[in-house]
Amino acid sequence: MRKNGLLVVLSGPSGAGKGTVVKALLEQTPQIRLSVSATTRAPRQGESHGEHYFFLSREEFEKEIQGGGMLEYAQYCGKYYGTPKAPVRQWQGEGLDVLLEIEVQGGGQVKERCPDSVGIFLLPPSWEELERRLRGRGTEDEETIRERMETARQEIAGMDGYDYVVVNETVEETVRIIQSILVAEKQKFSRMKNIYEFWKGC
Amino acid sequence: MRKNGLLVVLSGPSGAGKGTVVKALLEQTPQIRLSVSATTRAPRQGESHGEHYFFLSREEFEKEIQGGGMLEYAQYCGKYYGTPKAPVRQWQGEGLDVLLEIEVQGGGQVKERCPDSVGIFLLPPSWEELERRLRGRGTEDEETIRERMETARQEIAGMDGYDYVVVNETVEETVRIIQSILVAEKQKFSRMKNIYEFWKGC
Hints:
Two copies of one chain form a homodimer.
Chain A: E1 7-11, H1 18-28, E2 32-34, E3 38-39, E4 54-55, H2 58-66, E5 70-76, E6 79-84, H3 85-93, E7 97-101, H4 104-113, E8 118-123, H5 127-136, H6 142-157, E9 164-167, H7 171-186, H8 193-200
Parallel strand pairs in A: 1-7, 1-8, 2-7, 3-4, 8-9
Antiparallel strand pairs in A: 3-6, 5-6
C-alpha cells in the first residue's frame, strides 16, 4: 500500500534564505522533488526548458489554466508564472514529496485547491537581518530598498495562511525542522484513515 | 521569550509496545518528562509516592477533582486513577514537554480540556502480532485472552480522537517519529501567533 507523497509549499519574504534552504533540503532528503514552474517569459542565457522553467507561449499557458492544469498562477510584469499540476501529481503518485517554492499569492491558491497540502513559511532571524540581506544584494538606491522592504512586509502579512512557521536561524537547523514536519505530517490521523478503517474491521 | 512545553498524550492498545517506546523516548529526549498519575489504590511492594504514583486517599482525590485539579480521571475496579494538573503545568511552564501515557478514555478528556495537546496513538505492526503479544504475556486461559483482545479492539476504535497515528514497527523508528512530531508541533502557526504579531508590527 504505497502512499502518495506530500505537496509542500514553502514561502517567505525575499531575504529569508529560501534558496539556500531549498538547495540543502533537496541534497539531504532523497524523497523530495522540486516543482518546476511554467512561464511565458523568454528563456535567459543558460536556462533550459524543463529544468529552470517550462517555457510556454501565452496561448499554451492560458489553455492550461482553462483546462485546470495549473495548481496556481499569477502575472508579473505582463508575464504568466505558474505551477503545472501534472508533474506534481505524477511525483506524488510515486510516493515522492513535492516542494513548491512560491509566493504567498500562489501559496493561497494551492491551499484552497489542495487543503491537504502543507504550507511552511520561512522567516529571517530578525527584521534587521532581513534589511541587511536586502541591502547587501547590490548597490541599489534607497527607493529600490524601500520597495523590497515593502514587498517583504506584504509577504509576511500572508503568514497566517500557512500551517507552519520556521525562523531560519541556521540552514542546518531549518532543514532538520522541515524534515521533521514532513515525517510528522505523514503520521496525521487525517492521512491514516485507511489504517483506521482496516483496524476497525479486525 | 521562553515557550511553554507541549502536552503530549500517548495511547494505544495493550500490546502496542507503549512501555518500551516511552522508556526509549525518555532516555533519548532530554526535554521530555513523564507525568506521574495519582491513584486511590494502595501502593504495591516497591512503589513509592511521587515516583510510580501519587497515592491519595479517596477524599483527597475527590477534592482534587472538585477543584479542577485533575487533567483526566477514571475509576477502575472501584479505585480512582488520574493525572494531577499542577506538576504538568509546572513542567510545561519550564519549557519541558510532558508525556501522558494514558488510556483512550482519559485521552479524550485531556483533548477536550486542552485542545492544544498533542494526541499520538500507537499501533502494533499487525493484528496477528498484537494477539501474539497478548497471548505471550503469561499462561492465561482463552477467556482472559479474548477479554484482552476485546479491550484492545475498544481502545483502537478510539483512535479517531488522536492527532497522529504511529505504527510501532521498531522502537528506534517510533522514537524518531515521535521526536519529529514534537519538533513539527512547535512550529505550527497556531503556536507561533506571537511571532506573527511581532512581525506584522515591524
